[in-house]
Write a structure and sequence with these properties.
binds calcium ion; mainly alpha; binds protoporphyrin IX containing FE; single chain; 2% strand; 297 residues; globular
């Protein structure tokens, strides 16, 4: 059972320290907010929220398909961990640091906040096969994506609200090039031609486009407004609303969020708390890692 006052006596300044470090990191690079939010998601879907994604090693999660050349922010996590260690050595888990950093990233990008619950411990293994199978991919059907969320106890409302995380950050050409040729008819024509130009040659796979063209760095509900006007970036974004995949439920949620920021934020916060509660290690399971990249010796 995770609680919001878990470190009240053992690390009273924890939240202030993390907030300060996240603020510094976003100031140095705005996109870092998106990268930190995504790390918590990719951690929680594989072996639960146990910082398994942070472990180094070519046989670990960092080298799984959804993460390799893609997941970023590991140096920032190291920096946060080292500040936390200076204040309270050996008590705060890397998994909790990811949960707090994700929460702060949303708030500092213009979104709202929620009470973050703590007390997770760090796992002893990084599960590359698990990452390859559990994390949803951008060309998967809505049914498949929904099933992967259901596997970790999340429902269709969670799928739609959490997809709103794509209101910040960027994606590489190779993650949406499936839509460019032949041209996907569920994409706005002018956006299509801009992306075709950006991702013109096969060597352009690592170039990036913003998820939310109206407000790349702001945590708002433009992501959902974009879906209404055929401007979702990934296939997995647009299928929440388009005729070729959406359900009545996903369509009506997209519509509601597109004209009600507060409703989106309330549901997003609720879903983030649920996601942060996926199979945490507690009690004497796992450990408190000294260095987020390696298990303690
Ligand atoms: C619903 C299924 C999802 C799919 C298929 C998906 C897929 C992707 C893909 C393909 C990228 C781009 C990666 C790259 O180009 O290297 C991405 C980026 C991102 N995703 Fe998702 N994602 C999903 C759900 C989520 C959720 C639940 C969150 C968080 C709540 C999230 C947050 C992000 C963020 C913030 C980025 C940008 C990261 C950055 O700019 O560094 N995504 N996602
Ligand atoms: Ca994990």
């Amino acid at each position: 059972q995770l609680t919001s006052d878990f470190y009240k006596t053992t690390c009273p300044n924890l939240l202030r320290i993390v907030r300060g470090e996240v603020q510094k990191a976003i100031k140095a690079e705005t996109r870092m907010a998106a990268s930190l939010l995504r790390l918590h998601f990719h951690d929680c879907f594989v072996n639960g929220c146990d910082a398994s994604i942070l472990l180094d090693g070519s046989d670990g999660e960092k080298f799984a398909f959804p993460n390799v050349n893609s997941a970023r922010g590991f140096e920032v996590v190291d920096q946060i961990k080292s500040s936390v260690e200076s204040a309270c050595s050996g008590v705060v888990s890397c998994a909790d640091i990811l949960a707090i950093a994700a929460r702060d990233s949303v708030l500092l990008s213009g979104g709202k906040t929620w009470p973050v619950v703590l007390g997770r411990r760090d796992g002893l293994v990084s599960n590359q096969t698990g990452a390859n199978s559990a994390l949803p991919g951008p060309t998967e059907t809505l049914g498949n994506i929904t099933a992967k969320f259901a596997n970790v106890g999340l429902n269709i409302t969670d799928v739609v609200s959490l997809s709103g995380g794509h209101t910040i950050g960027q994606a590489r050409c190779i993650t949406f090039s499936n839509r460019l040729s032949p041209a996907d008819s569920t994409m706005d024509a002018s956006m299509m031609s801009e992306l075709q130009t950006l991702c013109n040659s096969s060597s352009d796979g690592n170039k990036t486009a913003p998820f939310d063209r109206n407000s790349v760095d702001a945590f708002d509900n433009h992501y959902f407004q974009n879906l209404l006007s055929a401007k979702g970036l990934l296939s997995s974004d647009q299928i929440l609303f388009s005729s070729d995949g959406a359900t009545t439920t996903t369509k009506s949620l997209v519509q509601s969020y597109s004209n009600n920021f507060d409703l989106f934020m309330a549901d997003f916060a609720n879903s983030m708390i649920k996601m942060g509660n996926i199979s945490p290690l507690t009690g004497s399971s796992g450990e408190i890692r000294k260095n987020c990249r390696v298990v303690n010796s």
